[in-house]
Write a structure and sequence with these properties.
By secondary structure, this protein is of the alpha+beta class.
Length: about 110
């Protein structure tokens, strides 16, 4: 295990090759074990599920932002792009590019 405890407190110390000891820290005396690459199919499955959840969550958030821009691209171009990025020519073009990238990119990320 990478984390270990002794008695009723953890101790903070130096890192060794296969474990970390903590010294003088007040935490519960529970024992935690971390999954590493060599722990087999359970670790691979947990990694795959965690990655899937993160990808779907980020995709949904980015799709939401793309759909907000799609509702009124003219207002977004006038109130956001022209206001905060005055050096960009053709604000409406940049708005549509952002919409396309946010919708298509998030679908690709979610797949």
């Amino acid at each position: 295990p990478l984390l270990s405890s002794s008695g009723s407190s953890w101790s903070v110390g130096r890192v060794t090759r296969d474990r970390v000891s903590l010294q003088n820290s007040k935490m519960s005396a529970a024992r935690y074990e971390l999954l590493d690459d060599s722990s087999g199919p359970k670790a691979a499955f947990a990694t795959d599920v965690g990655t899937l959840v993160l990808r779907v969550t980020v995709s949904l958030m980015v799709i939401h932002h793309g759909l907000q821009k799609l509702q009124n691209p003219d207002a977004f171009a006038a109130n956001m792009v022209e206001k905060f990025f005055p050096f960009l020519p053709w604000p409406l073009l940049w708005t549509w590019l952002a919409i396309v990238v946010e919708l298509a990119g998030s679908l690709c990320l979610g797949l």
